[in-house]
Design goal:
It is built from 8 helices and 4 strands, in the order αββαααααααββ. The chain is mainly alpha-helical and about 375 residues long. Strand 3 and strand 4 form a beta hairpin.
Length: about 375
């Protein structure tokens, strides 16, 4: 019997720990039990509390506290437990050891670039020196040349002129003589020449004051307009003098032997057709109204501009008739000629890319047909 007990004791001491035995069972938490060779659990061994094992680094969160789902105790002799399943609140990326992960900073956006200044509109008028210079020069030559050539020319006067050849409308003008009306018509003539230049300057400066550098741009546009206005004046006066010296119609005051308006035998006394004052007033004022309308095509002020132009030209013509300088037909024809020149010359200089002119020749049964088409 003693030999059997000694053999059992040796086997018990040589046996592996109970926790590693396949038949080992834990009856109580934190209790170690021994299983004998027969498979029965032995309670002879006293209970002992295992020393606490430090948790694995994988069980720690970023705040340094243990995961409550991890086991508190490990049996001696067992391998390291599997890493715990991460909870739903655990961060996905724990490589940095911090939670929550640092916010990504986006680079500051570049400051917005300043807006480009609006493009300045093209100039209203387009000049062609190859055409404009010869036209202006020809008008000045006709204007000054005829005045200088007629300075010393005299004629016998209109004492023997037959008044019955004068139409009924013009015959009513005979006997009119007013120095005040003549001086007033001269003042309106000078006003009609200077006013468009000043008014166009104010208009161009007001129309181009919004964009940077617009005043210089407006000044360049005004200079172009002045060239066009001067061309209107030269063409109108040159054409008027050419017609006057070709027709040589006596003025109304030349039918009177004695007249305070001028020498009845001077060449000036038979240059009645057509009225130069009236045609010049209509030409300059119509040119300015045309420029204003082209610059402001939808402006309501275009109607008053045209009314002012027509009113000043008509007043000039009426004063010339009251003064005894011209007949009604001289004034009427002069108003039409002046208005036509004042409108046509600016339209021909309009800086419009859509404007097209075309000339062509097409054969016909009786010859050839020359056509000139375009739009203003």
């Amino acid at each position: 019997m003693s030999r059997c007990l000694s053999l059992a004791l040796v086997l018990a001491l040589a046996a592996p720990p109970a926790a590693a035995h396949p038949l080992a069972r834990a009856s109580r938490p934190n209790a170690w039990q021994l299983v004998g060779p027969s498979g029965h659990v032995s309670d002879d061994m006293p209970e002992r509390t295992p020393s606490p094992v430090p948790p694995s680094p994988l069980d720690r969160t970023s705040s340094g506290t243990a995961d409550p789902a991890a086991p508190d105790n490990l049996s001696p002799g067992t391998s390291d437990p599997a890493p715990p399943t991460p909870s739903s609140n655990a961060p996905e990326d724990m490589s940095q050891g911090t939670y929550p992960p640092p916010a990504r900073t986006t680079p500051a956006a570049d400051p917005p670039l300043p807006l480009a200044p609006p493009a300045l509109p093209p100039h209203l008028m387009r000049l062609r020196p190859a055409v404009d210079v010869p036209v202006i020069a020809l008008g000045l030559v006709m204007w000054l040349g005829t005045d200088l050539a007629a300075r010393d020319i005299r004629w016998s006067g209109c004492q023997a002129c037959d008044r019955s050849h004068i139409n009924g409308l013009d015959r009513r003008v005979l006997g009119n003589e007013s120095l005040a009306a003549a001086h007033a018509s001269d003042a309106l003539l000078y006003t009609a020449i200077a006013a468009p230049i000043v008014a166009d300057l104010a208009d161009t400066l007001l129309a181009g004051r919004r964009a940077p550098g617009s005043y210089r741009h407006a000044a360049a546009g005004w200079a172009r307009d002045v060239v066009v206005l001067f061309e209107v004046l030269a063409v109108n006066v040159g054409l008027n003098n050419l017609v006057k010296y070709a027709v040589r119609r006596p003025r109304p005051y030349s039918y009177e032997p004695e007249s305070e308006l001028g020498d009845v035998q001077a060449e000036e006394a038979r240059l009645s057709f057509y009225s130069g004052h009236t045609s010049t007033a209509f030409a300059m004022m119509s040119a300015w109204a045309t420029l204003f309308t082209l610059r402001h095509p939808r402006a309501r002020a275009a109607v008053p501009a045209w009314l002012l132009a027509v009113g000043l030209g008509a007043t000039t013509g009426v004063l010339r008739v009251e003064a005894g300088k011209h007949f009604w037909t001289d004034v009427l024809f002069g108003s039409v000629a002046g208005a036509a020149i004042g409108v046509l010359v600016p339209l021909l200089h309009r800086n419009d890319r859509g404007r097209r002119f075309s000339a062509g020749m097409s054969p016909t049964p009786r010859g050839a047909l020359v056509s000139l088409t375009g739009r203003f």
